[in-house]
Design goal:
Helices cover 36% and strands 27% of the residues. The protein is α+β, with helices and mostly antiparallel strands and 291 residues long.
Length: 291
């Protein structure tokens, strides 16, 4: 079964513009590396319903139909799939059914956010600010050889939960001149602690991402800081306090949105990688049930 889906990866790669003999050899090499990474992930996959430990600071309740992959296996798969290396990555949440999404989970320390400003947020003002920041960042993207992007509208309007101290938002931001349902899209989620925060980034094909908004919301609500790390707990060290709106920007170094253009340019490879992961995760679960 794996060989068939490995072939699917190569087939999708062959569809990319300008694909030739050299690219074919590189595609096969990538497929072999990806095979090894997926097999390693399959061995450590924690299947829902279950509870995953997040850096001894919080827990994540895994819903049925999902699985958690820890580090270093998650990072190895991300690297094999073409994602930039992220030292803050703790793991990934993946579907064990035939869905096309993945959630990267990071923890970023040394920052506390003042959520008082969230009460006066205006979605239109935030959208205008996001559009401006994105346009300003296009010059740098162009210099790096990345596609320029434009923010068109909200996919998920910024919503802050004062009780759970969680923030979720997503923007419709295709490549300039492209269609809104082309490439990939992100939904950003944050769980605030007293001296840091978890960042959860759902990546999915843009055409499908609206259907995954409830999944992103459910996953975000499933993260719970442990006592001593919660937003309301006393701060022990020295941390910088920032406005919460700082998390709604396309140019913040804390956001995975800075590599969104890369995902958009490589979405065929991403879908193929997710396909293999889903199939192997499912086959692994079936094998466990038979034992």
């Amino acid at each position: 079964m794996f060989a068939r889906y490995l072939l699917a990866i190569a087939t999708l790669a062959f569809l990319l513009p300008g694909y030739g003999v050299a690219q074919e050899a590189e595609g096969l090499r990538k497929a072999q590396v990806l095979q090894q990474a997926v097999e390693a992930m399959q061995k450590v996959l924690l299947s829902g319903p279950s509870v995953a430990n997040l850096d001894n600071r919080a827990t994540l309740k895994l819903p049925q139909g999902t699985g958690f992959v820890r580090q270093p296996e998650a990072g190895a798969w991300a690297s094999a799939s073409g994602y930039p290396v992220d030292p803050k990555l703790l793991g990934m949440l993946v579907p064990t059914s035939e869905q096309n999404w993945v959630v990267f989970i990071d923890y970023r320390s040394g920052a506390r956010f003042d959520d008082a400003d969230a009460r006066g947020w205006n979605a239109d003002d935030l959208l205008a600010s996001l559009k401006t920041a994105t346009e300003e960042g296009n010059a740098a993207r162009q210099k790096r050889g990345e596609p320029q992007i434009e923010v068109q509208d909200w996919l998920v309007k910024p919503r802050y939960d004062e009780m759970q101290h969680t923030l979720i938002w997503g923007a419709i931001s295709p490549e300039k001149g492209g269609e809104a349902d082309e490439g990939t899209a992100n939904i950003h989620g944050y769980v605030l602690g007293n001296e840091g925060y978890f960042e959860l980034t759902l990546v999915s094909p843009a055409a499908e991402v609206p259907s995954y908004v409830p999944i992103a919301q459910s996953i975000l609500a499933s993260v719970q800081f442990s006592a001593g790390n919660r937003y309301q707990d006393p701060v022990k060290g020295q941390v910088e306090t920032r406005p919460l709106a700082n998390l709604i920007t396309a140019v913040s170094p804390d956001l995975r949105a800075k590599v969104l253009a890369y995902f958009k340019a490589n979405w065929l490879w991403l879908l193929a990688a997710l396909l293999v992961l889903t199939i192997l995760a499912g086959s692994g679960l079936r094998a466990l049930r038979r034992q």
